[in-house]
Design brief:
There is one protein chain. By secondary structure, the chain is an alpha/beta fold. The protein folds into 2 domains: 4-139 and 261-305, 3-Layer(aba) Sandwich (Rossmann fold); 141-257, 3-Layer(aba) Sandwich (Rossmann fold), CATH 3.40.50.460. The chain has helices at residues 17-30, 41-47, 80-93, 104-115, 140-161, 176-185, 199-211, 232-243, 263-281, 301-305, 313-322, and strands at 4-9, 34-38, 50-53, 97-102, 120-124, 164-169, 189-191, 217-222, 247-251, 287-292, 295-300. The strands form 2 sheets. A 7-stranded mixed β-sheet has the order 3-2-1-4-5-10-11, sandwiched between helices. α7 (199-211) links the parallel β7 (189-191) and β8. α5 packs across α6 (176-185). Bound molecules: 6-O-phosphono-beta-D-fructofuranose. 6-O-phosphono-beta-D-fructofuranose (F6P) binds next to loops. 6-O-phosphono-beta-D-fructofuranose binds at residues 12, 103, 126-128, 170-172, 223, 257.
Length: 324
């Protein structure tokens, strides 16, 4: 039986979301279903901001960052009134099932909406790679490569000036981008919430290495560890004062969310978008698409939200050993 499937992106945008929209839209159309694109996530659902997507509407987006459907974080969707308005609009548009692309907040919305009776399937899309049920989230690879490219550029200037760069990367409360780029750039360490650190020990290491002839340093700081009284700038000043090495802080910020998705992100987005449609077509409801042991799998939304995510502590300790 032909279905009408709504699709939306919610939360922070991530490179590869467009590739997932394209995959889900075309997979659904190829299987004889109709697709409605919802603009600005759940907020668009509440406001009835939606339109039919054809196979051509999703042309030329595979290689673009951001999301053609735009995205938002909707407070209203966390209220009963918001959920009911959204359901009413879905009924008017004939939407019988919803594919949502985003992070944990998006899934919590999907769980509430599914409890009202709308079948939902989630696709993990966030640069943070912090969704507990999945080894991979769309956008992570592109974001970490963007951060790495910036770090390589910073290395040129810190080397020329014999400085220490303190570089803050995104990741909300997770250090997955941080630990990978710290390892890939040879940083002295990575300050992240998952692993204890001691700034004085790091300063001591810098002094030892400076005395042994090393001239420039990078320290990665994950955004989860900073707050108003402990900013990357404070950290840079502290290091400068303790070690005598001139230090500068750089906050990479939203640049990490943009840009053309890497090949890896495009392929993952294609696989996940296609899989999400297969789930709905096969009568599956309220599932989250995920990666486990490099394979695409799916979980019940509620179970998925209660899982625990690992952190690569081994990589963290290896990068510490190698930064001598
Ligand atoms: O979840 C993606 C992310 O970029 C996080 O890394 C960051 O903490 C947050 O979104 C920033 O959100 P906003 O774009 O709303 O400032």
């Amino acid at each position: 039986m032909a279905m009408t499937i709504g699709i939306l992106t919610s939360g922070g945008d991530a490179p590869g979301m467009n590739a997932a929209i394209r995959a889900a839209t075309r997979a659904a159309i190829a299987k004889g279903h109709k697709v409605i694109g919802v603009r600005r996530g759940y907020q668009g659902l509440i406001e009835g901001d939606m339109y039919e997507l054809t196979a051509r509407d999703v042309s030329d987006i595979l290689h673009r960052g951001g999301t053609m459907l735009c995205t938002a974080r909707s407070k209203e969707f966390t209220t009963q009134a918001g959920l009911e308005k959204a359901m009413q609009n879905c009924k008017s548009a004939g939407i019988e099932a919803l594919i949502v692309i985003g992070g944990d907040g998006t899934y919590r919305g999907a769980l509430d909406f599914s409890r009202l009776g709308m079948p939902c399937v989630g696709i993990p899309g966030t640069i943070d790679n912090d969704i507990v049920c999945t080894e991979y989230t769309i956008g992570f690879d592109t974001a970490q490569n963007t951060a790495l490219e910036m770090l390589d550029k910073l290395k040129d200037t810190e080397m020329s000036h014999n400085r220490c760069s303190v570089v803050e990367v995104m990741g909300r409360n997770a250090g997955h981008i941080g630990v990978n780029v710290a390892a890939a750039t040879g940083a002295i360490d990575c300050l992240t919430v998952e692993v204890p650190y001691d700034l004085d020990d790091i300063c001591h290491k810098i002094i030892e290495q400076k005395n042994a002839g090393k001239t420039h340093f990078e320290l990665i700081v994950c955004e989860g560890v900073v707050h108003d009284d402990f900013t990357s700038d404070h950290i840079a000043k502290y290091i400068e004062q303790k070690t005598g090495v001139t230090s500068r802080a750089t906050v990479l910020g939203h640049v990490q969310r943009g840009g053309a998705p890497t090949c890896f992100d495009r392929v993952m987005a294609l696989k996940m978008g296609y899989y999400a449609v297969e789930l709905l077509v096969n009568g599956q409801r309220n599932r989250i698409v995920a990666v486990k042991n490099n394979k695409i799998v799916d979980y019940d939304i509620e179970d998925a939200l209660n899982m625990q995510k690992g952190y690569d502590e081994k990589l963290h300790s290896v990068l510490r050993v190698l930064s001598i």
